[in-house]
Fold these 2 entries.
Entry 1:
Amino acid sequence: MKKDERKYVALVTGATGGLGTAMVKHLVDDGYLAIANYHTRSKAEKWNEEMKAAGYDVPLYHADVSDYDSVGAMIEKIQKEIGTVDILVNNAGITRDGAFKKMSFENWDAVLKTNLYSAFNCCSHVINPMIDQQYGRIINISSVNGQRAQFGQVNYAAAKAGMHGLTKTLAIEVASKGVTVNTISPGYIGTDMVMAVAEEVRAQIIKTIPVGRLGGTYEIAHLVSFLASKDAGFITGANYAINGGQHVY
Ligand code: CAA
């Protein structure tokens, strides 16, 4: 079957989180065959029930994205059961915030592995099939805090800045093969991750957002779906800021 006669396969990592859920829904609504990667089985089961109740029947695949072999096994399974991953959204991420002087190696290591090594692990396993078929879209979900400084996020900022470093160089390496690689850098979005920040700290942060509110998950998902499209083929190596004006440069 020719590419245009079937649905493009879009894998979203960390799909059961706030941003991931919005991305999966938007991709399905836009006609993609969206696949959800998850880490915690109990959370995924609940998510699956809620998605089905909302009319979304999305295949779920387990992998620990911080583990190279675990990702490899997931991609192999997807390849066998569904086909080549045409679109990869590296969305999985965690925070372990704290002032640097108190930051443990474990909190540094966990964030780097889950937020940055994951991007290498996933790209590494999908890139050759994308090159072989001369088509692919990779979208790395970074953060405004990879573009600027944020007290308490040395680990997260390093990982998220690193993600765009990966985007830029991988983008030029595969540009001639029909594969685009882009970064989206969301600001503060109304997800569990942001709601976990202490209320008084969050209130101070919201005061620094010129639009005057947290972003909506659908506002990020909308851009993901556009960058995933065939029509976005001339956009590569870019970093899209969606932060309500909190960081302009
Ligand atoms: N700026 C300057 N100084 C600060 C500060 C700030 N924002 N916050 C705390 N400090 C100071 C404190 O006053 C204290 O000073 P002294 O040592 O002189 O007493 C010192 O720094 C240490 O303070 P804490 O003991 O409170 O530090 P901590 O290690 O417990 O960390 C924190 C505090 C948890 C990091 C807190 O500042 C915080 O939650 N900050 C917000 C972090 C944030 O924005 N996270 C984003 C999560 S969402 C996300 O990441 C999604 C995305 O992409 C945007």
Note: Residues 105-133 form the longest helix (29 residues).
Entry 2:
Amino acid sequence: MSANITNSGEIQTLLNNVAGLNNADGDPRIKEIVRRIVSDLFTAIEDLDITESEFWHGLHFMQAAAPELILIAPGLGFDHFQDVLMDAADEKAGQTGGTPRTIEGPLYVENAPVSNGEATLVSDEEGDPMQVFGVIKDEQGAPIANAKVEIWHASKDGGYSHFDPSLKEFAFRGSIITNEHGEYRATSIMPSGYACPPGGSTEAMLKQLGRHGNRPAHIHFFVSASGYKHLTTQINIAGDPYTFDDFAFATRDELVVDANDVDGVAHVNFDLSMVKAVDASDEQRSGRPRMAG
Ligand code: DHB
Ligand code: FE
């Protein structure tokens, strides 16, 4: 049998003590999670014969990687896995439909400028002009006025403002309130695909896995409207070499959108469909910690 030692009374008692199950203080939910995760790691160490050296190499890697952990998580599929879990929960609750969700990613910033109907996103950069526009609709196709459409994307070099110091504050970020026809429109420049930071821990880890750290050109969306479920999604521009080879596993077929040249401006037309909220908390995005700009 596998994990004989982990399953022994001695180690089970150790795990109970590690997780503080022998005291009445602390947070029961945290205790439950710590007990399970440490136990699963002990099992993996035993089953895979992870040596002491390998264990400490792993721990030192994580210590060095700490500032990049939120970048590594998508590369290890955690963000997409959460989407699949949320899709399954929606399915079980009979709340399917609407534009598919996909990962938020680690680079959202709060407090971007708000505009009505349309916005020209802040930029000092030259780039290929782009307009991203569409209609926010309910599931019957009726437009939703006063929906809040938050958009953020990378520069022509794949950098994000507030993370890439060469970019102006709130560059390529904006919050647009839909007009009476449910329309939003952002004037900006075409983003390039993103690559994980060169020389960093994410890149080092992916190399050990024989993988790359590239994402296709993409545009992020948060959409919220009174009475509808908050939607976190993004579109991937068709034709990018990484559209179907995204290291963060965020591409979904329904979210691949063409950029059509109209008199030298890339037009990216994306309508979104919102599902009715069941309770007020559905209207909110997740409580994930986010950077305030
Ligand atoms: C990462 C970067 C992104 O721009 C994104 O949308 C998702 C993930 C990352 O660095 O992991
Ligand atoms: Fe992104």
Note: The mean pLDDT is 97.
